[in-house]
Amino acid sequence: MKRKIIGIILALTLLGSSSLMAGEKLSLMLDWFPNVDHLPIYVAQEKGYFFDQGIEVSIISPSETSDALKLAASGNMDLAVSYQPQTIIAVDNGLPIKVVAPLVVHPLTTLLFLEGKGIKNPSDLSHKKIGYTVPGLMDVLLEAFAAINKIQGYTPVNVGFTILPALVSNQVDAVMGPFKTYETVGMAQHGYKAQFFELEKWGIPDYEELIFVCGEKTLREKPAAVKGFVKAIEKAFAYTKAHPEDALATYLAAVPQADKKIETQAFELTRPYFAVKTGHNLAQWQAFADFALEYNLIKNKVDAALLIHNWE
Question: What is the pTM of this model?
């Protein structure tokens, strides 16, 4: 009898793992150090949603913001957090990647400057120095933004993420790349009031700020695991929306090095922008890809339908 019970348990175990190996490992590289933009990932991790899907997810921070996308494309990372514009540029450059889920569904990126500098319209930045944060992304977005808004004769400066020091020291007059939900909070804590131009209100098409991408190789070799990741993230979106206070507490417990005051304020600003379900607005994606071609962010037409993985 005992042997029969063991046999039944073994059979049920094998049946349950036939489509997805229990504990299959996935690596996920963030776009930057852990912050509240990534909160649903930590909710999925800490609430056991990944475990429920039979996967183990390792969350890794990059050395550079462009690392994640490249490593996912090469198969050295299974998944990456990236930006829609950067992903479209990468695909145009031949990187074999697919978009598998959204994270933040509208732009957070701004052209930011300090209050009291006499800047009322983008054209006021003509013949000034404008910084940018991520080479290969924010400098090309800046170029498009400048063309649309008639910013003439400006000098681009790579400031990385030394945003406040670059502004305070007058190294630059504005910076392309800071998030309206994050850097503004940190600057306020240092006694500086930020103002900014929201890109989507000044001619840049609406786009998804943060997304999850996957290398085509990983998608072929681990389709059930990647689908499990997407299902877990969707559950985390729902939990974050329904229980924001506990979701924040869960994140802060998982990332103890985070500045609690800044992250709490930033979370309140970021909450409205998190995805509530997986899936993408294909027409919106195509509109941004067409814009990217028109303003020379890319050299070839990108078909958004081929870039976004369709979970059927």
Answer: 0.91
Nearest to 55 by CA among 236, 210, 225, 197: 225
Cβ pair 297, 205 in contact under 8 A:
no
Spatial contact of 95 and 66, defined as CB atoms under 8 Å apart? no
Quick: pLDDT tens for 194-230: 999 999 999 999 999 999 999 999 999 999 999 999 9
The DSSP secondary-structure symbol of 85 reads H
Q: Single out the residue of 75, 112, 4, 118 nearest to residue 218, CA to CA.
A: 75
What element of type H or E holds 211? strand 210-215
Torsion (CA) 80, 55, 33, 280 in degrees, nearest 10: 40
- Report how far apart, in Å, the C-alpha atoms of 275 and of each of 103, 149, 179, 206, 238 are: 5, 30, 17, 14, 9
What CA–CA distance (Å, rounded) separates 57 from 166? Answer: 37
